[in-house]
Design brief:
Keywords: Dipeptidase, Hydrolase, Manganese, Metal-binding, Metalloprotease, Protease
CATH superfamily of the largest domain: Creatinase/methionine aminopeptidase superfamily
Radius of gyration: 25 Å
Cofactor: Mn(2+)
Number of helices: 15
Strand order of the largest sheet: 4-3-2-1-5-6
Catalytic activity: Xaa-L-Pro dipeptide + H2O = an L-alpha-amino acid + L-proline
InterPro entries: Aminopep_P_N, Creatin/AminoP/Spt16_N, Creatinase/aminopeptidase-like, Pept_M24, X-Pro_dipept-like
Helix content: 25-40%
Oligomer: single chain
Number of domains: 2
CATH class of the largest domain: Alpha Beta
Number of strands: 17
Structural class: alpha+beta
CATH architecture of the largest domain: Alpha-Beta Complex
Family: Belongs to the peptidase M24B family. Eukaryotic-type prolidase subfamily.
Length: about 500
Amino acid sequence: MASPSSLSPPPVPMQLFARNREKLLRSLRDHLASISRPIQGFVLLQGGDEQTRYCTDHAEVFRQESYFAYLFGVREPGFYGAVDVSSGRSYLFAPRLPAEYAVWLGEIKPLSYFKERYMVDMVFYVDEIVQVLHDHFGEAGKPLLFLLYGQNTDSDNFSKPAELEEMENFETDLNTLHPVLTECRVIKSELELDLIQYANDVSSEAHVEVMRKIRPGMKEYQLESTFLHHSYMYGGCRHCSYTCICATGENSAVLHYGHAAAPNDRTLQDGDISLFDMGAEYHFYGSDITCSFPVNGKFTKEQIIIYNAVLMAHDAVISSMRPGVDWIHMHKLAEKTILESLKAAGLMLGDIDGMMAKRLGAVFMPHGLGHFLGIDTHDPGGYPKGTERSKEPGLKSLRTIRELKEGMVITVEPGCYFIDALLVPALGDPTTSKFFNREEIIKYKNFGGVRIESDLYVTANGCKNLTHCPRTVSEIEAVMAGAPWPLNSGSSKIKEEKGSV
């Protein structure tokens, strides 16, 4: 029997992480030189520790801390890593495991294994960190440690600086490393892009599998299970980039549906629109893809109106992306495109510029247009020092306001949702209510929402779409009816403007 997948998990080159360290060294040295500081000291990072479920001995599946993963690629818990700023030498420090480890968890690897596997210059045990760094400092006085400490502008949480029992034996710098290392992560190398592309290939294929399996009467979690199974079974992706959003009907207007209080457990109804936001992760690097389509495989007239409004915004942004383009402008382009479509369909009335001035785009799309993607779903670097988040509706939810640069990977995810918590105040405000056709809007009260999300790599002259899912109404209907993907030439003759209605 033919396999439902043509994918094969690729080997992960450790040169990727060695080059990430080289990139950090160049950037850090340049920064230190620009402020007339000595080119010396150690970058010291602490990797993640294995966590148990509350007070039990149930160990959660470990996933490495992201900054540590970026520089060292280590999949095991309990490690530290260091880079000598002056010489460029790289060090790993492995936990000294007890003899019982070999009984319960397998072979205790020698230090030489980690040196070869992770392509570092030297490997020691964690309990040797203080002595090793003093021995290799090469200068008089206490060695200087550049520690990772800074705020993640997506979560507002702060990164955890490495901790040592004998920290008083070192000089420490908590301010320099975080902005430099974060900026390194913003621009992706070709080796990083290969892993992000693979995660996209796995996820795109798994989304298509969901399209083919979905039926009225199923539970949302059954489609989540389909995605997770395909990603792991055929793509080798043990981790997801984030908790799956598998929303149908009214749930598709809940932006972060799928959490513990709404665990993808609704029964699918004939006539529902579905919104599946799911992305696989491969060796730390992730994907973030959203597909929206009718549960029964046939778009209604109303679903076509909203879906095509979002698709036009999605395509307009992608067509406009290139280095130097302002991301706020892209967000507003998506809003304007959606409002124009809603006006053409009779849901909105009046002047589009007037709607934009009143920020009515945020009534239908309250979230930001997209975000950086890499080792984290919301990769850092969206708001470098000196930039400020807008306080306006919609714009305040942007995860970055930067100009695009070649080498960035960023999501494009416009959406159109009918959310009472936003529509009711807008309809009750005399300054905004005049723009809404109440008779038409009311027809969409229980519609839910549509989001279309792809992952884009910014190139020298434009961008490359890393995501390969059916996007047009005709493509989706054909694939849900059993057509192969990608479609064979001429396999679908449905006119996009009409869909199946």
